[in-house]
Amino acid sequence: MRRVVCVFLPTWPTDRWRRRNGGPSPDEPLVAAGQEGARRVLTAVDRAARALRLRPGLALAQAQAMVPGLTVIEADPEGDAAALARLAAWCLTYAPLVAPDPPDGIWIDVAGAAHLHGGEAALLASLRRRLGRAGYRVRVAVADTPGAAWAAARCLNPETVLVPGAQREALPALPLWALRLDPDTVAGLAQLGLTRVEHLVHQPRGPLRLRFGEAPARRLDQALGVCTEPLATLAPPVEHAVRLAFAEPIGAPETLARVTRRLTAMLADDLARHGLGARRLDLVFRRVDGLDQAVSVGTARPSRDPRHLARLLAERLPQINPGHGLDEARLAAPRVERLEARQLAAPGAEPDPDTMAELVDRLVLRLGPGRVFRKAPVESEWPERAERRVAPLSPAAGATWAPDLPRPGRLLSVPEPVAVLAALPDAPPTAFTWRGTRRRVARADGPERIFGEWWLADDEVAATRDYYRVEDETGARYWLFRDALTRDGARWWLHGLGEA
Questions:
Q1: Which of 6, 164, 315, 377 has a CA-to-CA distance to 481 between 20 and 30 Å?
Q2: Minimal CA–CA distance to 144: which of 114, 121, 123, 164?
């Protein structure tokens, strides 16, 4: 399914000028002015100027009368458009299909690539954060269609994720200009009482077409996904890329898989000649109707093994909708690293790093990047602080867990309260109730006393925990602790399951 991000830069000309020249401060109004016929008018205003009721199209003389001492810069539409194209090229780091939307927007087709950035919400947050640090005001939205994303970025929240199919519920309440209609058409429709998208949805198409042309119906259908809207995507400046064109359109799944294997073999040969390995692959298919569709995969280590790379891409091929057929395919490696030849490991030696990396790549592709990790030790007395998540192939940091401290196979991220029955105060439990189920203790070992880390928090100066390893009548093992002595009002908690 197609998923398109719209990046909206509401104050692009003034933000760009501030970034290049510095000042005035964002609290001081800044406007750009240009010639329109015989008069000079405002072409762009920043946030502070808009708060003072200055708008594009207002005569410059009137604006200066309204705001004495107003800072005015010369409009540079050509420079703004060129800079927007450069920013769109930078957005290729997120997905292989990017198109500028002058004068103040960018489209990114993230279908098949959002998983590389932690999902759509994380991708939007990353875009806003990075562009915000560069000094740009930005609003972002993702939807099934470019038109729906364009409307959501301008009319809804600064970061909006419209789940698949949600544009039919989200768009009707928006104003008609959200369909990218020109001001004259919007004004003409308003004279008929049509001011929101829902008004247009229920109107007969024939009379509207006779009076306003094809634009209203076409923009509505594009936003709702009734008809396809191709984007004029940028050609990425990738050095390592291969391409295949087909005499006849293709579309069968087995044909796509065969083409993918051929492309990866061609690309692997190119990478081998340069001593490189791919860290990211972008596979783009062009449909006969002009719509590009892409899938992207990443690797944990540089790789140029065509079998492994083809297998990763094959996992994503079901996302490609061939429509009436595909007439071109191209495979690019926008991220590469040095990968020199090395001696193969002998049988029985340590695990091959490349084999481990291939396993990690497949797991990440199927489970998601945030769900594949390993635990690394941290020097801490408290069990929940004694480990942290790291990348699955990150090198060992040198710290190790003490071998003489038995720990459970699974540690709960947050200890859960339990009701405990003990024969004597401060003795091991004889039975406990956890999650509504009573368990009778057959064996118990402990206590292991752990003190609070007073150097980290004042409230841990007197903190203690007494841990017990217990086994119930079924053989299941648990890790329980008491957070104080019984006379001090101790509470019992379950912190782990199983045996290390």
A1: 377
A2: 164
Containing 65, the helix (H) or strand (E) segment is helix 60-66
Distance separating alpha carbons of residues 55 and 404, to the nearest angstrom: 72
Q: How many CA atoms lie within 13 A of 95 on its CB side?
A: 30
What value, to the nearest 5°, has the Cα angle with vertex 100 and ends 99 and 102? 150
Shortest CA distance to 482 belongs to which of 398, 417, 406? 417
How many CB atoms are closer than 10 A to CB 263? 24
Kindly report the backbone phi and psi dihedral angles of residue 435, in degrees, each rounded to the nearest multiple of 5, phi listed first. Answer: 55, 40
CB-neighbour burial class of residue 412 (10 A; exposed 0-12, middle 13-18, buried 19+): middle
183: nearest Cα among 26, 2, 326, 55: 55
Q: Which string of DSSP letters, residue by residue, matches 74-134?
A: E--HHHHHHHHHHHHHHGGGT-SEEEEETTTEEEEE-TTTGGGGTSHHHHHHHHHHHHHHT
Question: HSE (CB half, 13 Å, CA atoms) of 72?
Answer: 20
Pairing status of strand 492-497 against strand 410-422: antiparallel
Degrees (nearest 5) of the Cα angle 204, 209, 214?
A: 120
Q: What kind and span of H or E run contains 327? A: strand 326-338
Instruction: Say how far apart CA 46 and CA 12 lie, in whole Å.
Output: 9
Residues of the chain predicted below pLDDT 70: 341-354, 398, 485-488, 499-500
Q: Are strands 30-36 and 71-74 parallel, antiparallel or unpaired?
A: parallel
What pLDDT score was predicted for residue 263? 97
DSSP three-state, residue 186: helix
pTM: 0.74
How large is the C-alpha radius of gyration of the chain?
Answer: 31
In single-letter form, the type of residue at position 496 comes to: G
| φ/ψ bin of 151: left (φ > 0), alpha (ψ from -120 to 50), beta (otherwise) | alpha
pLDDT in tens, 147-195: 999 999 999 999 999 999 999 999 999 999 999 999 999 999 999 999 9
Exposure letters 39-49 (e unless 16+ CB within 10 A, then b): ebbbbbbbebb
The residue type at 432 = F
Alpha-carbon distances of 478 from 199, 465, 484, 486, 489, rounded to whole Å:
63, 16, 19, 21, 22
